[in-house]
Amino acid sequence: MAKLVEGDEKTAVVVLGHADSTGPADLNREISRKRAGAVAAIFRLSGLKHDRLRIRGLGSDMPRASNEHQEGRALNRRVEMVLAPQPTLLALIAQYSEVPGEPTQVASAEVAKAK
User: Fold this and answer.
1) What is the pLDDT averaged over residues 58-87?
2) pLDDT band at residue 100, thresholds of 50, 70 and 90?
3) 15 domain-assigned
4) Per the domain annotation, does 73 fall within a domain?
5) Rounded to whole angstroms, how far apart are CA atoms 31 and 97?
6) pLDDT(23) > 50
7) Domain count, the chain
8) How far is CA 78 from CA 11, 15, 41, in A?
9) What does the pLDDT average to over 3-25?
10) 74, 90, 94, 100: which could join 114 in a potential S-S bond, CB 3.0 to 4.6 Å?
11) What CATH number should be reported for the domain holding residue 25?
12) DSSP, residue by residue, 9-32
């Protein structure tokens, strides 16, 4: 996938890391950020430039399954990749705040620049 995206200069990638709800929220956010960073490293190694790649660690804020059971927690520990046209990248990452309810300062500044 990384090689295909690298060859298409019109496409950008947002890598979203997720975690289950066990442990403190700040630790889950850090784990999810590292999880996204590990996947993003593959895109970087394939040659994808920084202006076409962003990562977000969302912690346990967007579960896919219930965190009450081991199977659900396993499903919630994941990485998702969102492919988007490069011109929409900044607006897209603004949707994925790293602090629930608060846009990140970087995302807010990038959206302002995009307008």
Assistant:
1) 96
2) low
3) yes
4) yes
5) 16
6) yes
7) 1
8) 22, 11, 16
9) 94
10) 90
11) 3.30.1330.60
12) TTEEEEEEE---SSS-HHHHHHHH
